[in-house]
Amino acid sequence: MPDNLATAARAETMTLRRPRLSDGTRMWQIACDSGVLDVNSSYAYLLWCRDFRNTSAVAELDGRVVGFVTGYIRSEAPDTVFIWQVAVDAAARGRGIGVAMLDRVLTRVRPFSVRFVETTITAQNSGSIAMFTSLARRHDTGIYCRPLLSADHFPDTHETEDLYTIGPIHKGGHR
């Protein structure tokens, strides 16, 4: 089954929407449980739901939040949405929820002349690399990688984060 049809079939029972303030706690829990994300304070997730809700998304299955995407439009690059975090509850993985949430965010920001997606990924995070590569393929556009933050930039023990840029995203949507 082609990528877009498989995602659509899996998304039938899913609700994708903007996060509400009441979702912040669940988003924080999902981030904590992921075991791979840098977990922000619970306060940060609550503010994200208030201040960046138009560039973020949550996924619900049977009324329970099972995933989220947090993003923002870069003030220095208003044609670029930076995706901060993508997380899906372990029990809901493998259903295309991450890519579906990313598509929802792109649908929302495209009228505002957003043409590029940026994110940072560590070299060892093959799942995220595959998800963003799939996003580029589905939108029939390029994906480019370059170093951004070396381990030396961080005050703690953090892996190097490479910058991935996907685009240009065309207004016509994805395949």
TrEMBL record:
It comes from the Bacteria. Belongs to the acetyltransferase family. EctA subfamily. GO terms for molecular function: diaminobutyrate acetyltransferase activity. The keyword Chloroplast does not apply. Its EC number is 2.3.1.178. SUPFAM superfamilies: Acyl-CoA N-acyltransferases (Nat). CDD domains: NAT_SF. Keywords: Acyltransferase, Transferase. Residues 14-161 form the N-acetyltransferase domain. Pfam families: Acetyltransf_1 (PF00583). Gene3D superfamilies: 3.40.630.30. Pathway: Amine and polyamine biosynthesis; ectoine biosynthesis; L-ectoine from L-aspartate 4-semialdehyde: step 2/3. The gene is ectA. InterPro entries: Acyl_CoA_acyltransferase, Ectoine_EctA, GNAT_dom. This is L-2,4-diaminobutyric acid acetyltransferase.
